[in-house]
Amino acid sequence: MLFNSIDFAIFLPIVFILYWFVTDKNLKLQNFLIVVASYLFYGWWDWRFLSLIFFSTLVDYAVGRGLSNEENLTKRKILLWISIIVNLGFLGFFKYYNFFIDNFTTAFSFFGAQLNANSLNIILPVGISFYTFQTLSYSIDVYKRKLEPTKDFIAFSAFVSFFPQLVAGPIERATNLLPQFYKKRNFDYSEAVDGMRQILWGLFKKIVIADNCAQYANIIFNNSSEYSGSTLFLGALFFTFQIYCDFSGYSDIAIGTSRLFGFNLRQNFAFPYFSRDIAEFWRRWHISLSTWFRDYLYIPLGGSRGGTWIKVRNIFIIFIVSGFWHGANWTFIVWGALNALYFLPIFLTNNNRNNLDIVAKGKYLPNLKELFLMLLTFTLTVFAWIFFRANNIKHAFEYISEIFSTSLFTFPIFYKDDSAKPIFILLFIFLTIEWLGREQQFAIAKLWIKWHKPLRWGMYCLILFIIFYFAGEEQQFIYFQF
Amino acid sequence: MKKFIYSIVAFNILIFSIYSLISFYVNAEKIDSSDYMDAIIDKHNRIEQLNCPKIIFAGGSNLAFGLNSEYIENEFSVPVVNLGLHAGLGLNFILNELRNTVKNNDVVFLSIEYFLSNEGTYQLKKNVSKNYKEANNYYSIDLRYEILSNIDKTRSNLKFKKSKEKIADNSEPKNQVYSRGAFNEYGDAIAHLEKKSPNSLNGRKEYTYSYWAGINELNKFYNYAKSKNVTVFFLYPNFPVTEFERNKNAINKLSHDLSNNLKIEILNRPSSFMFSDSLFFDTVYHLNKKGREIRTTKLIELIKKSTKAQQAISKIAKMKED
User: Fold this and answer.
1) Nearest to A464 among B7, B15, B159 (CB)
2) Distance CA A287, CA A295 (A)
3) Inter-residue contact A438 to A271 (CB < 8 Å)
4) What would the pLDDT profile of B96-137 be if each residue is shown by its tens digit?
């Protein structure tokens, strides 16, 4: 069930009413409602994969219960590894089986040997990359004794399957989300209103910006050999905004929806395109995933302790694995490696924690240096996204080499296209609003908050009208494919 | 909580009101009943005018484009109405249309496109009921689709987008092949008869066999028709030889299922209405002038060979004389 669908528009109010009016007196019943609603939400895509999420839930709950009674270190490790193997096993099979088979076959043929291995027609379960990491974080935190294992299976099931963030994050830590299922939730008017505003903004980002940019990005990337360097750069720009607005829009809707039910999810995007260096970008982009890798992979590998080569190794591992998490294609691995290359110079010169505050905090405009650094960082990420979007490595290199040809200095093909003009205006408006709201959780969190109600409602109606009028051709949320 | 609910409800009322105003203003349209699907109006007008037992042909456009009803009427001295219009309406629509139309002693010949879906395309059903309101009784309203299509329509009209291109045709709009003006008084499409066929036939596809759900629907209709003293016959549609060869397995299995399970008398075999590609106009179900004549002649022969069909038609002819 998509967030921007009639089905969800009907589903959400029904669940909301049942949650606050029917089950609010009984916490267990309320959590059970969350589980039922979440399974219904997930099963709407494909009911066959409900068994997977249920099995994953069962395994990690059992592992948690086992860890609570086990003091022997070896046995504790075994239990942890059961959780890791089951979760990563599912992920590995559904997401990476064909990738490994194809690459093994290619590698063998390179040495003149023939390997007869069949690829399988495997459907990737929606959200598997997200909920497996979420449940793994529970098992690891219980193992490390950061979290008491839960005895409440319903609460745990609700934590694993919580529908607002089930299929595309944020990847919530058990230490943050699970305890929220133990406590009675009280309806908070301002939280609910804020949640609605966040949903509205998320829909605007997804439907207006992301889907419209996607149309042009797809045209350009799918026919890249026919376009000039300037048009190809424009295509990369469109994709840059598409992926940000698609993913952060989804996160906004997820977080906003959670707030309607009295839950606090962590911020997942903190205006990453206003970053002044790559380190800051990675502190602001897909925060739940990058912190997951930091805490469960980077730090156990030694983090930034050890010699230079160890640090370099760890940085590459983190970024390449992060790239690989996104999909079974060499382009994602190269994207990760490229980001590692961007990051290393700042990291090795100890400049990776220079920009911890938001740029131009408290000011309307950045200074020239900040502007230059933002543009530089932004340009680097645009080029990295080309690998992310390209069909394969060859396509990515051809795309980039054409950008750096003399045709970069010609007018892009869309500059005369009347149908493309609105998207440029919308992007300008969007970036302005994002800039003005960059110190908040989401761009319109405080916007118009002091206006009188009729004016505020007028603005909401205007946003809805813009969503309605400028809705692009519906595109699936990009991160559903991960 | 109450404050929140009231705010949400009030806001939704506001949004709905604004949307309704916009929708009402931009979607107001001039009545245009010249569309191909509006031919249903004339077909049913004919039925009302006849007000006597008649022969009715029902199915998709294989009948619209491939029947000379006047020839059949003259041959049997019985009024004929060709209800054939568009297979995309789905089998249920076609059968519901018949349920609302047939009267005592009518004879119905069903010529249904291969593996026709029960539900058809919702948009086509909406199109046909735009100017012929009675058609709303032939299918169930899909509320979800209605809401989404209204939103799409409002958005399109707001943006003043051009309507879909009409099929290119050099003749006057009302005589275009795919318009209401393309049909004669019997319900046969005739505007294409003097036109040159395009180079290739559309609608070629490979069928995957599975037990056709339409058989159950046809049997239900048979029971209904029997209760109304209406005689029903089933005909395989015309089809190009090349397409038949490609889909031989699936069609033969379908034929086997129909022979074993269909209560309605089947007058022909699939192969008996296989024609050379050169006898088709623009799709695998639309015959050209020559193909139409050959098919009609063969159909008349089949009817004459069927005792039950002859009896039913003779009864109507006699009643007409009386």
Assistant:
1) B15
2) 12
3) yes
4) 999 999 999 999 999 999 999 999 999 899 889 989 999 999
Cβ-contact A163, A127 below 8 angstroms = no
Instruction: For residue A345, give how far its alpha carbon lies from the nearest alpha carbon of chain B (Å).
Output: 50
In terms of Cβ atoms closer than 10 Å to its own Cβ (0-12, 13-18, 19+), residue A128 is buried
Q: What share of chain B is helix, strand, coil (3-state, %, to 5)?
A: 55, 10, 35
- Mark yes or no for CB contact A469/B14 under 8 Å: no
Residue B104 contacts residue B66 (beta carbons within 8 Å): no
Pairing of strands B80-82, B107-111: unpaired
Of the residues B2, B3, B4, the best mutation for testing chain A's interface (the one with the most A CB atoms within 10 Å of its CB) is: B4
Lowest mean pLDDT among A33-37, A167-171, B29-33: B29-33
What letters, b where the CB count within 10 A reaches 16 and e where it falls short, cover B213-240?
A: ebbebbeebbeebeeeebbbbbbbbbbb
CB contacts of A460 in chain B (<8 Å) are: 11
Is the minimum CB–CB distance between A97 and chain B shorter than 8 Å? no
Report the distance separating Cα A80 and Cα A364, nearest Å: 50
Interface residues on B facing A, Cβ-Cβ cutoff 8 A? 1, 3-4, 7-8, 11, 14-15, 18-19, 144, 147-148, 151, 155, 158-159
Looking at the complex, report in whole angstroms how far the Cα of residue A377 sits from the nearest Cα belonging to chain B. 38
Measured between alpha carbons, how far is B15 from A430 in angstroms, rounded to an integer? Answer: 23
CB A258 within 8 Å of CB A190: no
Q: How far apart are CA A242 and CA A190, in angstroms?
A: 30
Answer yes or no: do B15 and A468 touch at CB < 8 A: no
Place of tokens 């405080």: A446
Q: Tell me: the pLDDT tens digits for B157-190?
A: 877 543 333 333 444 455 588 999 999 999 999 9
Residues of A tagged active-site:
326
Asked if A189 and B3 come within 8 Å (Cβ–Cβ), the reply is yes
A293-315 pLDDT, tens per residue?
999 999 999 888 888 899 999 99
Nearest to A3, CA basis, from A249, A263, A179: A249
| Min Cα separation B248/chain A (Å) | 29
Residues of chain A in contact with residue B3, where contact means CB-CB under 8 angstroms, are 189
Which pTM value belongs to this model? 0.78
d(CA A12, CA A4) in angstroms, rounded, equals 11
Cβ separation of B14 and A457 shorter than 8 Å?
Answer: yes
Whether pLDDT at A231 is above 50: yes
